[in-house]
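User: I'm putting together notes for a lab meeting next week and I want to include a structural view of one of the chains we've been expressing. I don't have a solved structure, so I'd like a prediction I can at least talk through. The sequence is below, exactly as it appears in our construct file.
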Amino acid sequence: MFASSAGGHLAQLLQLKPWYGEHDVRWVTFRLPDAVSLLDGASVAWAYHPTTRDVKNLIRNTFLAVREVNRMRPDVIVSSGAAIAVPFFWIGKLFGAKTVYVEVIDRIDTRTLTARLVSPVTDLFLAQDPEQLDLFPGSHLIGRLL
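Assistant: Thanks for the context. Below is the predicted structure for the 146-residue chain, given as structure tokens.
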């Protein structure tokens, strides 16, 4: 399962297709024009937008996470943020899923808020820039996705 905001977050995860291409994938993102176009024909659950400091949509997306994770029972949940990752990582962990967080490339000197919120339940942190490795002890460098 891939859970991310639309736009750049989604674009970065789509670059991982050589890795996930042979697997059954369920996407969770926002129904915005770029996501609708990029995920045409894919299995998608549309999340509630906006999420930035929107408590109502955080609650709605938490219920969505419970429903989707319970129904799909993913082995792994992958995200590059933003806020949509939070309910999916926490609920996913409760259901026994492994979690993989890809820190976005535009943040190399501090950790994103999302990264800080999902840290306690993240099994693997992936960095896109060598400078990010110091921010996430034990993380692995995968290089730039975009």
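A couple of points you could mention at the meeting. DSSP finds six helices and seven strands in the chain. The chain has a mean pLDDT of 95.

User: Perfect, that's what I needed.
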